[in-house]
Amino acid sequence: MTTTNTSSAALIARARRRFLIVGLWVPGLITLVAVALQLLWLRDLPNPAAIHFGTNGPDGFGPRWTYPLLTGLLGIGMLLLTALPVLAMAHRGRWSVAPRLLAPFVSGTVLMLAIGLTLSVQSQRGLTDATQAPDVGVFLLIGVGIGIGYAIVAWFAQPALVVSAEDAIAVTARTIPAGTRAAWMQTISVRGAGLALMIFGVGLVLVMAIIMTTVGQSTAWVMWLLVAFMLVLVATMFVFRVRIDATGFTARSIVGFPRFHIALDEVADAKALTVSAMADFGGWGLRVMPGNGVGIIMRSGEALQIVRTNGKKLTVTVNDAVRAAELLLGLRDRAAS
């Protein structure tokens, strides 16, 4: 980890500019150009237009405006969903490998969609019957090729920078007399930026599912399946109950799964620290980040970190992390005596 100072602030500003260029401004501009072209060509398309293709050609049809709506909604939505938490991380004086990974993946995907959909629109110009639309396979391949190429450029255009604060609080084990019952409990839930992003992400997919259903898209069920999957995923990560007692540390999702348990004899160390959700773990919810281990990250801020005897780490954002760490170490020492 690197302690934040004047020098690191300048490095973060530079990394932030690079990220904004390759991860927001360039793909955002290309998306807007794609939407503008599609709107310009809208009157030249058959109505309904071909919006889905199978092995035998067009097999799904919908309003002509489906193309610019999907291109703009998906493109701008995905870019903002990535950029906003990264900017919040930079504002806190942190930076991590997450932006360098997210910018290529998301911007490459956005370009693939924008180019593929725009070429599909262009291919239908002048047709009176959408069933005559040519196969879009080659257009998708062009989009994929450009997307991958841009992703590579976006990766190398950003610096390999990690800046975080050395703000761990050393704690000492609490003395717990033999026979004394002691426990610490807390219920934690996603809030703030993490909650907003979860709502935005689910809402974006839900809107897509509604649009596809409205236009009679035969594969709309796939989007509804994705909505259901995302709701289940959010439910498993939205609320956790955390408990420290004579059995060790336990964190359980409110739906019962996943569950994490660390027995007292597995605890090598415990400490309180401040984490940045994006900088240290790349986001919110249940996270895994090389170097930082597993994280149950509901927000940025105070957290309890447990180091196992095998070197693995578990970090959970809680209030009163110092007291939790002191109690866990005290229970461990009492059990070992």
TrEMBL record:
The keyword Transmembrane helix applies. It comes from the Bacteria. Keywords: Membrane, Transmembrane, Transmembrane helix. The chain crosses the membrane at residues 20-41, 65-89, 101-121, 136-157, 195-215, 221-240. This is DUF1648 domain-containing protein. It comes from Microbacterium mitrae.
